[in-house]
Amino acid sequence: MFPLAYGHHDVLRKHSPRLLAFEGTKVDSDVVNGIFDRFMVKEYVKSVKGTTFPSYFETPVDQGQMDAYMKEFVSLRGGLFTGGIVCKEFVDLRRYGDATNEWRAFNLRGRLLNVCRNSNQPKATPTPPEELVDACADLGSPYYTVDFAELQDGRWVVVETGDGQVSGLAAAQDPVIYYQVFADALERGV
User: Fold this and answer.
1) Phi and psi for 81 in degrees, rounded to 5?
2) pTM of the shown model
């Protein structure tokens, strides 16, 4: 439910690609055309990666096109559709071979538990700036994730937040070590 977090935290609005959230399935193309050059479509929780749905759109998009795209998107999400449509600024992520440089941080009660590579990128890729990770360590939720990504120009952005109870472990994360760190934090009263 990133649009909800984005709307309540200056740090996310400052360090995330811009987004517009629309309740339900109707998207106003004039509003989208006025904000974005390129945008991706998702709903409040997920996108439709791995389908034939375009990964991004370029503006301008007329209302008829927008309505057709949204109908297709909602059909692809089916009964999993949640909240509404989100149009999010499409940004160019830095690639290392076939992988982007994305990292997932787990936070518990305002404290960082860990940050791990999350897109099968090589081990030698840059890590997100400590200042950015720290700035996102207390978003008011007891247990959550923050996903960071390196842009093509070397800057870093927040691309997603998630509920720690349902977010998967990062691709490079050792589950035994993660749950030991989690248990240790709980024992310390974090």
Assistant:
1) -55, 130
2) 0.92
Full 3-state SS string of the chain: CHHHHHHHCHHHHHHCCCEEEEEECCCCHHHHHHHCCEEEEEECCCCCCCCCCCCCEECCCCHHHHHHHHHHHHHHHHHHCCCEEEEEECCCECEECCEECEEEEEEECCEEEEEEECCCCCCCCCCCCHHHHHHCCCCCCCEEEEEEEEECCCCEEEEEEEECCCCCCCCCCCHHHHHHHHHHHHHCCC
Give the tens place of pLDDT for each residue, 123-147: 999 999 999 999 999 999 999 999 9
- The two three-digit tokens of residue 33, written as one number: 């055309």
Q: Which two tokens stand for residue 92?
A: 């160019």
Amino acid residing at 4: L
